[in-house]
Amino acid sequence: xxxxxxxxxxxxxxxDAAFLEAFQKxxxxxxxxxxxxxxxxxxxxxxxxxxxxxxxxxxxxxxxxGNWITRAPTLRxxxxxxxxxxxxxxxxxxxxxxxxxxxxxxxxLVDQLLSGKAKYSSIFNxxxxxxxxxxxxxxxVDGAAIMNxxxxxxxxxxxxxxxxxxxxxxxxxxxxxxxxxxxxxxxxSEEQKAMAQDALDRWWWxxxxxxxxxxxxxxxxxxxxxxKIKRFTNDELRQKFxxxxxxxxxxxxxxxxxxDLKWNEQKxxxxxxxxxWDEFWRVVKGDGICNRDRMKARRKAHDxxxxxxxxxxxxxxxxxxxxxxxxxx
Amino acid sequence: MTExxxxxxxxxxxxxxxxxHKHVGSLHAVDAEMAMQAARDVYTRRGEGQSVWVVRxxxxxxxxxxxxxxxxxxxxxxxxxxxxxxxxxxxxxxx
Lengths: 329, 95
What we know:
Strand order of the largest sheet of chain A: 1-2
Pfam families (chain B): PaaB
Enzyme class (chain B): oxidoreductase
Oligomer: heterodimer
EC number (chain B): 1.14.13.149
CATH topology of chain B: Ubiquitin-like (UB roll)
CATH class of chain B: Alpha Beta
Helix content of chain A: 55-70%
InterPro entries (chain B): PaaB, PaaB_sf
Number of strands of chain A: 2
Strand content of chain B: 15-25%
GO molecular function, one term (chain B): phenylacetyl-CoA 1,2-epoxidase activity
Distance between the termini of chain B: 66 Å
């Protein structure tokens, strides 16, 4: 989903050639760039944009699944889903911290999300309608996220790479719990299996869109590759995801909703049908099924909790003032 | 925005006795108690630690990155601080 963070990212930068060359040399030598190191303004800007969008995606990503916590079918499923949603919140926090090392404040970042200035992954603008959607989200959405995030563990920017290592360690449980839900449904009644197929039908194409536009339409991608912010192109990662996921669907006895999907012996991967890019851009630009609901939910959470932030701060100030007064006595 | 920014804290965790506390990341909290609770929730959800330190980021004194050379370069030339600088005959055995 994080390739979407680069949509519209402007990596243009105005340093002199010698500075840029020295920087590129460090990157090429696989030396990590740390927050206080000299870096091109375009590198900083691109990273702030991508890491912030990644963080926002984790936070908004809690909504479709959080919706199902109270309706999970068993206590085992409920405990797992609760832990997963809590992890997503944690991932958002690691990522916000990584973005802040580049000189942007948490308050600015949250503001950018709530004002609609910053985007989050298009996938979270689809609704989770049935319990099978929770299985599918874990299996496909977290699966696609892992595909994206593993190469980010080697990102040239140290704090982002370190945050990704923590995230990836935790993410594998997410995908496995989702696939286990799908397995259970597929081994269940006819209705349960049909529910699993229906969820796959609705989530397959949006999951493929998580990798972002085709390479040919992915502007600024070359610069991000050169700076080793990203290591694989959108289409490369999408192909890897398809090749890994199709056999998993076969194991479940489910059918991918793509009549053009077939194994291509020559390339050693699957060929697939054309992605509906009109739908992709509609969702990215705010016209998905849930865009308005998601933003409304985030703004409501922020507003409803304002008193907690204010009370905590007032208490901290009062306690500090009292301690100073006691010390002065 | 009229709200004040919430202070930043750095989090250090000792994974188990015998290891030193290691920096794991940062978080925002208004006071030490809330920083400690948040550190537990954000950084130790899978038994990562036996002990947690939280330190206000503003209390950390850091070396100036622009003075990296004057700060660390002098040790580069002092090869006599390393054991390999000294010639000891092989007959002496391992030392």
